[in-house]
């Protein structure tokens, strides 16, 4: 049977579902019911979600959890997290509580600019191109003023435009490399609109530039697009305490804890295989808050991992030291986030999440997200160097296994009590369920 279809996007939602279930599912009614089960009972909310993307057939739920007790720069936050991994919110909450009793987190935004580029080909004399660029630079900015005027009023806009010679990499390849400040907006649409306008002006003006030869006048624009590499949109978060205060884990002394912790971080700094997993744990916290606040986690992921390899080798995003008996643990991370525009004013749960965070500016949100990443990493390293990761992870995963076996409420209560004093493994849970049902 052919599974291609033309004009799919023009079908009504119910016709789309009919086509999907008739084409792909043996139990058509069941497939249809599952899709419909996840529709929102409020038509307006459902329509809003239908219109976020093309070809919406249902909604895809993720749990929205909260991690309370985050003291950040002396303000207490309860942080919203959208994530499916069972132990992440528990680990964040535990780390928050640990540092609440030790002065909390300190965070600062280091820089906030973002980059966009017009990539073009030019076959001619570079000195003449430089001359042309200098003559047209102010016009590039002037002709983008219909795009920039509101952003200018908010204190943002175009910071600079440079001409870059990239001919060592590709023959004839140059860039307009522009720097932007986008205030509380993530700024992707703003930056891309500016770049496309720069490209138009640049090409048109080149055709009129008399110093160019006829062939030099023919600048070929390849593409205009923002960069998700944002090393100058950087935030730092930190915790510190006296080594003696690292005293909550019964089987390890504070000094031993600090030494082992620092060793674990050093390994992630030098060993890429470990660094990737180490940073993945950080992104558990980062992505969950980025998603809950309606931001683009793919952009954040791409930028963060590029930053982690900026020195030519993939490395840890966090670092730790002990100096004069003071344990210090910090993260520096690039985060292009927005608290206006995009989903932030549209998705009801995103609006709620932002209100929970006292309606933060983009800079405040950068700090909160960096702290969530640092806390997550603290929780992971703490477990790894003490009990091992599986104890806490499997404890949280227990409910998933019980649900897989469709355990009743009574069965759940009994087994949760049982596993308070027994090690949770998949086979141990299966055995316990079987024993209980025998
Ligand atoms: C699991 O999602 C994340 C960890 O593997 C992170 C780490 O190893 O640091 C626990």
Beta-strand segment tally: 10
Q: Which secondary-structure class do the elements indicate?
A: alpha+beta
Report the biggest beta sheet as strand number plus sense, adding barrel if it closes: 4 strands, antiparallel
Whole-number radius of gyration? Answer: 27 Å
Through-space gap between termini:
47 Å
**What's the mean pLDDT score?**
96
Provide a concise account of the structure shown.
The protein has 438 residues and is an alpha+beta fold. It has helices spanning 13-24, 28-37, 43-50, 88-100, 126-142, 145-153, 188-208, 254-270, 272-292, 297-308, 348-356, 362-385, 389-404, 409-418, 426-437; strands at 64-72, 75-82, 106-109, 113-121, 157-165, 173-181, 220-226, 234-242, 318-323, 326-334. (R)-mevalonate (MEV) is lined by residues 85, 277-278, 280-281, 284, 380, 389.
Task: Give an overview of the whole structure.
The chain is 48% helix and 18% strand. The longest helix has 24 residues, at 362-385. A hairpin with a 2-residue loop joins strand 9 and strand 10 (326-334). Helix 5 crosses helix 7, helix 8 crosses helix 9 (272-292) and helix 9 packs across helix 12 (362-385). The protein has 15 helices and ten strands. With 438 residues, it is α+β, with helices and mostly antiparallel strands. The chain is globular. The chain has helices at residues 13-24, 28-37, 43-50, 88-100, 126-142, 145-153, 188-208, 254-270, 272-292, 297-308, 348-356, 362-385, 389-404, 409-418, 426-437; strands at 64-72, 75-82, 106-109, 113-121, 157-165, 173-181, 220-226, 234-242, 318-323, 326-334. The chain has a four-stranded antiparallel sheet with strand order 3-8-10-9. The protein has a four-stranded antiparallel sheet with strand order 5-6-4-7. Residues 85, 277-278, 280-281, 284, 380, 389 line the site of (R)-mevalonate.
